Amino acid sequence: MTQQSLFSSAVGYCMDSSCIIAMWSKDYGWYSFDVFPSLKANIEKMIQDGEAAVPKEVLTELSRKDDGAHEWAKKCKLEHPIDANQTRIVSEIMRDFPKLVDTKKMGEQADPFVIALAESKKWTVVTSEKNSAKLRKPNIPDVCQARKVKCISVMDFFREKRWKF
Fold first, then answer.
1. Which is it for the CA torsion 28, 34, 38, 40, positive or negative?
2. Ordered per-residue pLDDT tens for the chain, 165 residues
3. Which of 55, 63, 94, 150 is within CB 3.0–4.6 Å of 70 for a Cys-Cys bond?
4. Cβ within 8 Å of residue 148, ≥6 positions away
5. What share of the chain is helix, strand, coil (3-state, %, to 5)?
């Protein structure tokens, strides 16, 4: 199976770094894989079935911490390759929401790529971010709402999948 056909699922989820951290981190995670091992198995099955992916920029963000999340994501082949359509969408997002990323701050550059991947595949974004009170500094849910991309919280993701732990 090619990498492209691996990610051809009609139903899918693009996970933000905050989502993976919420499931991975033993210190900061709410649903840590070490406490919820079946969650890890469920996520890995989704990845294997082409129903979950991230852009490489999420892997870059994960690599900035030495907690194993980056290695796990690479091992599971969570990365989805970018295409011309996603590049176009990222350009539109940055034109319309230039404050989505802080160019002076490292580690917050994946957001437009997460949204672009989900939009291009008609997938759902999963994030721990909340809507911003002010659009001067929008968050992922703000941009998703404006672009009509479905965006849900990690807990709503579990509910949508009907997972119980």
1. positive
2. 344 444 455 789 999 998 888 887 666 556 777 778 888 899 999 999 999 999 999 999 999 887 788 898 999 999 999 999 999 999 999 999 998 987 766 555 899 999 999 999 999 999 999 988 766 789 999 999 999 999 999 999 999 999 987
3. 63
4. none
5. 50, 10, 40
143 contacts 99 by C-beta, under 8 angstroms: no
Chain CA centroid to CA 85, Å: 18
**The CATH fold of domain 3-160:** Rossmann fold (3.40.50)
56 by Cβ neighbours in 10 Å (0-12 / 13-18 / 19+) ranks as middle
Q: Name the nearest CA neighbour of 47 among 18, 75, 86.
A: 75
- Single pTM value for the model: 0.88
Q: Where are the domains of the chain?
A: 3-160
- State how far the Cα of 52 lies from the Cα of 97, in Å rounded to an integer: 25
